[in-house]
Predict the structure.
Amino acid sequence: MTMRSELATEIRRLHAKLEKLGWKEDDCALIAPVTLEINELKREQNAVILAHSYQTPDIMYGVGDFIGDSYGLSVKATDHPAQKIVFCSVYFMGETAKLLNPDKEVLVPRQAGCSLADAINGQQVRELRQQNPQAGIVCYVNTYAEVKAECDACCTSANAVEVVESMPQQEIIFIPDRLMGENLAKISSKKISTWDGTCIVHEGFDINSIRDIRNRFPGAKILAHPECTPGLVAEVDYAGGTEGMLNYVKNSPASTFMLVTECGLTDRFKAEFKDKEIVGTCILCPYMKEIQLDDVLQALKDPRPEQVIEIPADVAQRAKRSLDQMFELEKAGKKLLQEQGRSKLPWTA
Ligand code: SF4
């Protein structure tokens, strides 16, 4: 194929994926040379590109091999033969991929932060433990490896209830997401205290925008992330993480939905559910949006030291133990909730 026909094919491929998001062929033509080069380098280097759902559509659909949430993508990479992982996401997500894929090279295009992960460090968790020796400490997966290393177990938004319920302690310190901790406290049998971290995206939504959508689109289903305020979560039709939202929309007979979450996920739903209408507003995550196609290209061509994820061995070993504990507790928690007749415990209960 000549360069010109390769470019024309790439523009058509991009346009087929991005048309629903309002991209014209001319827009696709601007990024096609870069996506072609990245995809070529990916093949040459036996690399896989993971794109978090909050990335921009050019990254998700232009170069991403898999799109999803941080933990699901990191697990997916363990089964993939590629020896190099480029994780288009914030830094702590790259760390999670490295913890689960220790023998692979893991790159992040930018050293991007996160308001939740940046809210607590390892030393602060050690102090919490000293002050509260009777409590178990559970961290949300949106934390750095040095924080995971100090906790008893990790959890995701999909298994937080199971993990917390099956912890041996009656008192649980949930870090770093205060709002998710408050949502958890409403449905858990444990005494839960929280740390004052928040996701600047999800804490930014207010109940009035939900009520406004209900008035303007009667019959619309409203879905929110449990990183939102408990008041808001109580008013929606479904609360959960990315996979839960995808399944809800896929299986719902409704035709109109509002997603109370980051704009990238809203774009993803618009692109992937061509027969459903997505309404309402979304909020951009400035950390996720730091990553540009050019950063991905540069990381593949000539990675700088700060783009290569390295975790000290003792931290990695203890952080991995927290992730392994999550699996065990999730299994035990599912069984426990089933026995108690609480197996379908939703965040909105
Ligand atoms: S949306 Fe942005 S700020 Fe919120 S948890 Fe994700 S990376 Fe962090």
